[in-house]
Amino acid sequence: MYAGLQELGVANGEDLKETLTNCTEPLKAIEQFQTENGVLLPSLQSALPFLDLHGTPRLEFHQSVFDELREKLLERVSAIALEGKLEERYKKLEDLLEKSFSLVKMPSIQPVVMCVMKHLPKVPEKKLKLVMADKDLYKACAVEVKRQIWQDNQALFGDEVSPLLKQYILEKENILFSNDISVLHNFFSPSPKTRRQGEVVQKLTQMIGKNVKLYDMVLQFLRTLFLRTRNVHYCTLRAELLMSLHDLEVNEICNVDPCHKFTWCLDACIREKFVDNKRARELQGFLDGVKKGQEQVLGDLSMILCDPFAINTLALSTIRHLQDLVGQDTLPRESPDLLLLLRMLSLGQGAWDMIDSQVFKEPKMEAELITKFLPMLMSFVVDDHTFNVDQKLPSEEKGPIPYPSTIPEAYTKFLQENRIACEIGLYYILHITKQRNKNAFLRLLPALVETFSDLAFGDIFLHLLTGNLTLLGDEFALEEFCTSLFDGFFLTACSRKENVHRHVLRLLLHLHHKVAPAKLESLQKALEPTKQSGEAVKELYNQLTEKLELRKPSPAEVTETPSMELPLPTVPTPASR
């Protein structure tokens, strides 16, 4: 409590204790101690007895004076930090720190010492080490001081950042597994600017400040974690952090990050959920502008493009371009804009391999993706148009034309072997589901059972698919639809992939009332958790069971009234009727 006072020649409680122990007249000793260490203001001496008459303790008076002086001192320190030449102001603050630092552990004086350190752009290293070595002091110091400690202590900075990164990933997963299933409000609904206001991004932005070294450290943490886990949410955080610093106009960092302008342009596309021609040209310019010897920037650009929000925007734009090409009677290879979207998709999807191998080259695009797969996808769009037109034609002279039920074997093979084809194929499924196109959905669904790296069973796709399936709610009453969706797709992976199990239960929690009772009963048995199932699956299953129990008819409703036409024995009528 009295740490450092003796060094400054100020008497403390220990001195008073020693005086009282060794004196013969304690009252005189106390009076002398008060005179020597009280407020040395002549006019105050006559006023103090007046406070005594009002019953105000001297401690309360001195504490009040002390608090007032401390506030004035804090204001003065902040003023010194802004006035005069840089060298002069910092010299004053350094002198003040030298005089006051011995009192840093004294709780009442500590805020002043911390305020002085906060305003110093470079606190003496010796004092930083003393702060770092004391947990209480480290916790109490301002983030401006901590930045100076962190920039030379990567492990300590990592300990501070790690819980925030874990929190960020958990928040993203909670959104993907949310019980609120909606086609209007999904994972991709919040705007980029809204997402950047999140707690983790804001805290990291504050921790970094304008310190390029700390920013580079965070980026290195994100790259390392992305490599270790393959979790694409780290790519999202990489882009969000840069744009958060952009919002605050932290030019010290934005000007040295080679991805800044590319990320800024892409951020505008994500906001619109579409890459228009003008921005496409800009993005292409950035990619083409990577000079020889600077290829390493492709690693960062690929990570920016691997952000699920970027992939979502590029894939949606690709589907829209394909539809436009059908109307224009144009082949994919004749569209520069489409080829650029595929180039960026390829770069984003190849991010992990590029950073892992440290070979910074754009992935080579397979010609068959453009010459065979995309035309095949366009043929599905044509099939839909043809079927819809046929349905509107008079049907007197012809029988009903069935919707095409088969898919080319090559299409399934593309989804299994080509990552970009698989991503586009999945987004086409989401597109037709959103259009309530049941026929096209049931036709293409079997191709999703085996896909590249099981992408069809990834959380982001299943989150979007379950949301879009709410638009086909009425179809869940049909046996054929449920068998194709559940038995033919979901249940093929439930036993080996717990995340699929969770998404199916989420969907049924939302649409169970639409499913035929017999089918619902068989699904309930098939989805029963095993001993190995996680708590999340068990919790969802219990919620579903409770909902189904509530829907069961009461015994009175189950009893059927016998038909009067049949010669059956008389059945007693329940008392409730």
Automatic annotation (TrEMBL):
This is Negative elongation factor complex member B. GO terms for biological process: negative regulation of transcription elongation by RNA polymerase II. Residues 551-577 are annotated as: Disordered. It comes from Otus sunia. Pfam families: COBRA1 (PF06209). GO terms for cellular component: NELF complex.
